[in-house]
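A.,

Following up on our hallway conversation. Structure tokens first:
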């Protein structure tokens, strides 16, 4: 156990599906897992372990932002011997052709943050997810007929909708890096995974966009992302 996770080591599967929202973790357990049990509720960061189509899987929330993701990912990999984490979540779209609830696969992630420098004295701002795992997600999407946008995403220290000028942020990004979406956790996950020699991937549903004058409601964000959830689950069985 850790200060943030009361689960016993054997309570956590070696594959973790990781939404940000604890209620989304609860929703996934109740609607997709069999024989599941709640194994962590410290700080209301719910974790459930059960079976999906015969595969033992843990679904655990990460909370919002890189610091929160960094804590939970590190502990899962280092202390609970988790091998694979797939972050599933919401993102802001930067593609004109992407509609609300279209799915993004982050092949790599750019961040202005000093997360890597603070954690590991490493001046790193671009990190790749596990290629094999991302390839498997891409293949599963094709098999299921799911439209999938793949590319670089941005990981920010604040909610991009609240930036005073998102275009200035985009202008600061180095030449050659063109993010197709923005979120707040994947850089920390990918960096911790690489540091510890583990696997990580990130799939997200578009819930707002700089090109669409509509934002998904909290209810839609919690329960309206089934296609993304099923893609992540089917990619690990």
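Then the amino acids I'd put at each of the 237 positions:
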């Amino acid at each position: 156990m850790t200060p943030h996770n009361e689960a016993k080591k054997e309570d956590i599967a070696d594959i973790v599906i990781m939404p940000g929202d604890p209620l989304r973790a609860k929703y996934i357990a109740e609607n997709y897992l069999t024989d599941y049990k709640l194994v962590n509720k410290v700080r209301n960061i719910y974790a459930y372990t059960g079976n999906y189509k015969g595969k033992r899987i843990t679904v655990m929330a990460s909370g919002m932002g890189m610091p929160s993701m960094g804590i939970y990912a590190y502990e899962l990999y280092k202390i609970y011997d988790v091998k694979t984490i797939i972050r599933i979540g919401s993102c802001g779209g930067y593609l004109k052709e992407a509609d609300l609830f279209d799915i993004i696969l982050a092949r790599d992630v750019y961040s202005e943050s000093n997360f890597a420098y603070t954690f590991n004295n490493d001046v790193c701002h671009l990190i790749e997810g596990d290629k094999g795992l991302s390839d498997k997600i891409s293949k599963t999407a094709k098999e299921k007929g799911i439209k999938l946008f793949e590319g670089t995403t941005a990981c920010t220290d604040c909610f991009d909708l609240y930036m005073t000028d998102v275009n200035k942020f985009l202008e600061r990004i180095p030449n050659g890096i063109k993010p197709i979406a923005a979120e707040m956790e994947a850089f920390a996950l990918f960096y911790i995974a690489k540091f510890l020699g583990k696997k990580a991937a990130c799939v997200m549903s578009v819930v707002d966009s700089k090109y669409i004058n509509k934002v998904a409601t909290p209810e839609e964000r919690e329960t309206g992302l089934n296609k993304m959830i099923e893609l992540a689950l089917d990619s690990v069985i």
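Strands lie at 15-18, 34-40, 47-52, 55-60, 84-93, 103-110, 126-128, 148-155, 181-183, 199-209. Curious whether your intuition agrees with the design.

B.
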